[in-house]
Amino acid sequence: xxxxxxxTFDPFSQFFTLLLRNGTPFNVTLNELDDFILYSxxxxxxxxxxxxxxxxxxxxxxxxxxxxxxxxPIFAINAVALTLNFLRTLLQCLYFxxxxxxxxxxxxxxxSRVSPxxxxxxxxxxxxxWVLLVCVELSLLLQVRVVCITVRRAYRHLILxxxxxxxxxxxxxxxxxxxxxxxxxxxxxxLFPLRWLASATNITTSIxxxxxxxxxxxxxxxxxxxxxxxxxxxxxxxxIIFIMGCQTLIIP
Length: 252
Fold this sequence. Notes:
Elements: H1 2-8, E1 15-19, E2 25-29, H2 30-64, H3 73-96, H4 103-108, H5 116-147, H6 153-187, H7 195-229, H8 237-250
Antiparallel strand pairs: 1-2
Helix pairs in contact: 2-3, 3-5, 5-6, 5-7, 6-7, 7-8
């Protein structure tokens, strides 16, 4: 009998019992607890890496940009975008080390000990994500305008108009998702019924990034072709940027 019990018992699938505020018991398995801890660690590493990368790139941008270039709108927008993403990832790290991510609060769905400042941090994260996207899209629009300056006027206006539409859709969907996400945070309701909005937000953002990358790569390809016709066909930095840009369109 003891042998049968020992062969069927899986100690890694045990559960333990917790109590709700009203005394109602509920069970949590070790697998669920492992998944919760593993996800928290993995996502914290992700945001911490982004935090360090943004700070590093911001320092590099400030140190290596020539003084006369620091007055350009693109430099200002890029610096603001890196600063915003630094703040966003910092708040994300605070979330995963705060009361929202405590074991009991998560499994019991009891956020009674979460302070108003923690709610404000969560709302700030979703707002900063939208503002960050606005900065990114504005930066890309300005860069497309610069690279298309030598393109024929009709084509240039067409490319810019299409770019504005693509960027506007991405910003609009992100704004809608930002509003709904903030509402769900304050009301502690699930966003699952609006999963289509989250998908549409990610899809439109991905399309906008792909479009701008394709525009840059196409213009660079034409420039390389013109250089080759002029006899300047040696392999250099422009060719490397072109190859890596094509690669990232296929394998990000």
